[in-house]
Amino acid sequence: MAYTIEQIAQALGAKVLGASDIVIERVAEPADAGPQDLALATKPSYAEDLPKGEAQAAMLWDGADWKALGLKAALLPPRPRFAMSGLTAMMDPGEGWGDGIHPSAVIDPTADLADDVHVGPLSVVGARARIDAGTRIGPQVTIGADVQIGPGGLIREGARIAARVRIGKSVIIHPGAVIGGDGFSFVTPELSGVEVARDTLGDQGETAAQSYARIHSLGSVCLGDDVEIGSNTAIDRGTIRDTIIGDRTKVDAMVMIGHNTVVGTDTLICGMAGTAGSVVIGNHVVMGGRSNVADNTFVGDRAILGGGTGVLSNVPAGRVMMGTPAMKMDSYVEMYKGMRRLNRVFKDVAEIKKLVFKSPKND
After folding, report:
1. Is 118 a catalytic residue?
2. What is the tens place of the pLDDT at every residue in 290-315?
3. pTM (two decimals)
4. What are the phi and psi torsion angles at 59 (to 5°)?
5. Pair 235, 216: CB distance under 8 Å
6. Which has the closest alpha carbon to 163: 194, 125, 137, 135?
7. How far is CA 78 from CA 60, 68, 168, 249, in A?
8. CATH homologous superfamily for 3-91?
9. To bridge 57 with a disulfide, which of 73, 77, 186, 249 should be the other Cys (CB 3.0-4.6 Å)?
10. Cβ neighbour number for residue 260 with a 10 Å cutoff
């Protein structure tokens, strides 16, 4: 897959300086770039490594002196970081699975696959599943009964899509993700110690030990359009209603989304984050890595949860939170600064105590 600098510039809406006919076969970091590579030197600190490679052309920042950097051509996009989206899409070689239905795939005769759907080796498509045009199913994928997958999707190696899941258009699901497992829902015949402790804020009383009965999950999962689900992420189906992930929301690897949770549009959920059951996450929310949200809790639109934040109560729209229990980030930072000063304060107090006890009044 090769493009001239001019072709790349037109696709990205970027300005070209120098030899626009240089052919680019791949992108590379400056130190690793060869003559047919486009070096990504979008900051002065990155450009310092250009002499270590052999790049003729580079993507640079606005105002860079490309000739002084020893280049024959330069690509200047309005926003280099955003240009990476289009550039990497152009240069992506794909997964190399091949086209069509692999002979080892098992397709239920009642399943409805569009003519240009591709299914990889050892994959299974269940009864009455419907897969729309242009969707690619990788190797060893399981598609359950009555699943609906919209056009232009990419379901990668080893993903598991359980029965009745509905997936919109242009959805990407990465290896090992499990969409539509049963929710973690169990109940005891009488009030449990956990329920009592929650009501009393700590005292579980004289509750007896009991066994747990399983609550089956009758709902499913609905993924909106242009959603992306990371590797080894689990999204549980709802108990009665569906668990919902809104349009254009991106979920990182090893994330846990509990049953009945509703996530809005254009939200980012970073690696190892999680929600308990029946959580509502608004639109344009960012959940940092390892952040978590307690059950039956609401996080408002445009809220940001810093890495490791533990949300135990509702978060207002637009609030930036950090810490466990979560608090406003500026308050958390002040508290953290105070904690770091504690050792010095203790030493100062100890010195003051010494001076007080040694004073003439104590002789």
Report:
1. no
2. 999 999 999 999 999 999 999 999 99
3. 0.89
4. -85, 120
5. no
6. 125
7. 10, 21, 32, 25
8. MurE/MurF, N-terminal domain (3.40.1390.10)
9. 73
10. 26
